[in-house]
């Protein structure tokens, strides 16, 4: 499976160099073909390939069990019940979630900028395809709704953005934590805002040790508190698959990219009207990674849910470097760095082995 991802990654990298020269008909056809391949790869993956598929397969087969219904959203139970009328093979479930997770993201990419489709695809494949579509399949649909919601906020349709987030919550309740983005302004960052958002990211590294007080409040929220408690118990007994290292290479590079994009904010604003809200969501993702670090699984999931927006945001590097081909190379090298971490979740160290795939 990792080799198939690498093949599409390389082909996408090559196509990104010339996508502005391709006739739209061929560009869209190739883009849709890659999307179909990604859906089939997720849907037909081997059970056990990633850390979550065994649990999803078991829950799918025993959806009627009281324990199963208490651990997943009602939508998962309904989907499982309907699909079980035809087959108890969990690949039917994987195909369903992949169809909407990948399909809606591809639709979102098109809505953001149909001139950078393959650059978006490169960045998507580098990390979020494995993490959301192969592993956290419920989050896959939620994160797609999140991308669509951001676009609607930029269009001034916050009510529609709210609907998208609420639909996403039907597939994973963690979508509730995305509601603050509805209040983000999408105006160019002023000088003081640049300092504030950068300060939030930097200070979060310092105050992360006091995150336990936040947990004390969150566990009081009905249903959400139960989910957080499960994450906390997993961390306490050592069953958590995530590790949080705010000063690890992965996180420090992510912060460096954030600072770079803030530095060139005036230049990027002229080219990408989504930039102001995207950079704010990136800051939130970086903050949550360390502030919620007292529960590693929770921190990683919330952080990378918010950071799904970096699929679009990191493509803005294209506007900060000339000539174009140099910017594409730099962006693809960034994607290659993230790909090394993403593939570790399916047990494939590409460049070097990481500790817990961070």
Tally of separate helices = 18
H/E element sequence:
HHHHHHHHHHHHHHHHHH
Q: What's the count of strands?
A: 0
CA-atom Rg in angstroms = 20 Å
* Strand portion: under 5%
Instruction: Please give the largest β-sheet.
Output: none
Instruction: Bin the helical content.
Output: 55-70%
State the end-to-end distance. Answer: 21 Å
What ranges have pLDDT less than 50 throughout 5 or more consecutive residues?
235-241
- What value does the average pLDDT take? 86
What would the principal axes of the Cα set say about the shape? globular
Helix/sheet category: mainly alpha
Overview of this protein structure:
There is one protein chain. By secondary structure, the protein is mainly α. Helix content is 68%, strand content 0%. It contains 18 helices and no strands. Helix 2 runs antiparallel to helix 6 (91-112) and helix 10 (191-207) packs parallel to helix 15 (275-291). The longest helix is centred in the N-terminal third of the chain and has 22 residues, at 91-112. The two termini are 21 Å apart. Mean pLDDT is 86; it is low at 235-241.
For the structure shown, list the relevant keywords.
mainly alpha, 358 residues
